[in-house]
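Researcher: Please predict.
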Amino acid sequence: MYALLLALLVLDGLFLSVVILLQSGKGGGLAAMGGSGSTMTEGILGGRQATTVLTRATWFAGSAFMVLALVLSIMSSRAAAPQSVIQVDAPVTAPAPAPVLPGLTGGETPPPDGGNSDGSGN
C-alpha cells in the first residue's frame, strides 16, 4: 500500500510540474502594479477571469499532492514508532567465532593435554 501511494505521489508531482510549466505567465509581477491608476484598478477591481483547464488541473494536482504527502507521512511515522517503551528488542548478534590457536592448520583439533605435543602437560 505504501509503495502504491509513493508511486502515485511521484506521478502526481511530475504531472503537476508539467501542468505548471504549460501555463502562460501572468506578466509583470509587482512591476505591473505601478504606473497609471487605471491599470491598478483593473487588476484589483476587475472581474474575475474564467478559470482555465490548466488552472483547475493545477489545483487538483496540488491538492492531491498535499493529501498524498500527508498520508505517507502519517504511515511512515506509525511504522517507525515502537510498540512499547518498556519492551525493547535486543539486537540480534551472530555467535562468536571459534578461537584460532597458533600452530594449527585448517581442520586439526588441539591435543587433549592442553596443546603440548610432548605429553608433559606444561
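Model: The chain has a mean pLDDT of 73.
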